[in-house]
Specification:
The structure is a homodimer. By secondary structure, chain A is mainly alpha-helical. The first copy, chain A, contains 9 helices and 2 strands; from the N terminus they run ααααββααααα. In chain A, strand 1 and strand 2 form a beta hairpin. The radius of gyration of chain A is 24 Å and the shape is elongated. The N and C termini of chain A lie far apart (61 Å). At the A-B interface, helix 1, helix 2, helix 3, helix 5 and helix 6 of A face helix 1, helix 2, helix 3, helix 5 and helix 6 of B. The structure holds a DNA duplex.
DNA sequence: CGAAACTAGTTGCATTGCAACTAGACTCAA
DNA sequence: TTGAGTCTAGTTGCAATGCAACTAGTTTCG
């Protein structure tokens, strides 16, 4: 077993790099530009190049990509052009299958924050959620404009499918926020420290410590 | 400037630890148990304790929590009980405001995978998305059962608000998946390499490299 | 008595995110 | 023409996170 290296782990960036090299061999900076041109910065975090170079290094060590040439377009620094290998072509399919079919547990900050919203008063909660709703609406509008523009310009639907998904999720978040906001406004969703303490003392709160005092 | 330390960064786990210590001083393992009992493992990643201990260390160094006592319930190892400080109480409010009101750009794997779905044939895509849809449906059903059970047991709505949100998002994902799946089945969503290459060659593909060949 | 399982915490490694830094080339205006 | 800003291109370092393994005492069960 000569070439045994640990299998390379998938990540959004690794998948995208490997996929783009599928279409054409390219150098790291070119990949970054391509990702931005195709509007995929929403989806892959190529903002700071560090991640990109490290990912490429990882793929190279793992044998999923190889150096094709080192070109020198005078006026620019030397650029190393990479191409995908057969192992890389196989890996992309495995990753893609896994990433598409298995919903992975991730831990975004918003649900975590929501789960502690009772530290705020209903009024404070209302104000912060209103701000979020505005921002989500703006983001959604901007994204929808880009997407429909691209669609009208003839970009095939499958190439915009991730925007379609993101928009569906954003729309759901917005609807949900609007509902909660209106429930906070009309008082059908409220709480107070006393109420919560009462609910906690009859709930399943008494078994994690030798001491049963709450608050 | 004696006690100047860098401000502690927020994270789902840090927020939750700080919030729970609000209700009652506790030791790390107790916090982990509490998080699990309250069904918050979906939302905070306390699966491997390492993160928990490191987070607590971080909060301690940052002055947001303090050691209250070191108890010894013989038969158990010594346990250090922490309590939240005034600085901690202030930090939680700032964090919460930020985390609730500002939608942060995160990079989950599914959209990244979707954006490269065209590497599969429409048929392959259909099959993998069907699998995801099944899993999402199962997860949603399980979660809904837990949530409605808790609600009927008298847990106040605000304490289940993050489940409500997650369920809304899961429902949207499921609806979206169902739509795409049916479009894949009836052929109203398709693609082929030739089609994509054609679209690419008239699109904005030609400026990231000196070489314009695609494929 | 021995094997599991639970309690409690630690260690190490790979990966990520974020920010700063280097450094050459080009662009434009004072 | 020279200096300020801006691109291109890549590197370095640190803190944080995720994941897995390891230590070690305790209890439980056969």
């Amino acid at each position: 077993m000569a070439g045994m290296t640990a299998p390379v782990k998938s990540s959004p960036l690794a998948l995208t790099v490997l996929a783009l090299l599928h279409y054409r061999p390219l150098h790291p900076y070119g990949l970054q530009q391509l990702i931005k041109q195709w509007g995929k910065e929403q989806v892959v975090n190529v903002g700071q190049r560090a991640g990109l170079y490290r990912t490429i290094e990882r793929l190279l060590v793992g044998g999923l990509i190889a150096v094709r040439q080192t070109e020198r377009d005078q006026q620019y620094p030397e650029r190393t052009v990479y191409e995908v290998t057969d192992a890389g072509r196989a890996a992309v399919r495995e990753w893609l299958e896994q990433m598409l079919s298995v919903p992975k547990a991730e831990f975004p900050v918003f649900p975590a924050a929501l789960s502690n919203m009772m530290l705020f008063t209903p009024d404070e909660a209302l104000r912060t959620l209103e701000q979020r709703a505005e921002r989500i609406a703006a983001q959604r509008a901007a994204m929808e404009e880009v997407r429909s523009g691209a669609a009208e310009a003839g970009v095939p639907r499958v190439a915009l499918i991730e925007d379609e998904y993101t928009l569906a999720v954003l729309a759901a978040e917005q609807r949900w926020l609007d509902g909660v906001i209106s429930d906070l406004r009309d008082g059908s969703l409220t709480w107070s420290l006393e109420l919560l303490a009462a609910a906690a003392s009859q709930g399943p709160a008494e078994s994690a410590s030798s001491d049963g005092s709450v608050g």
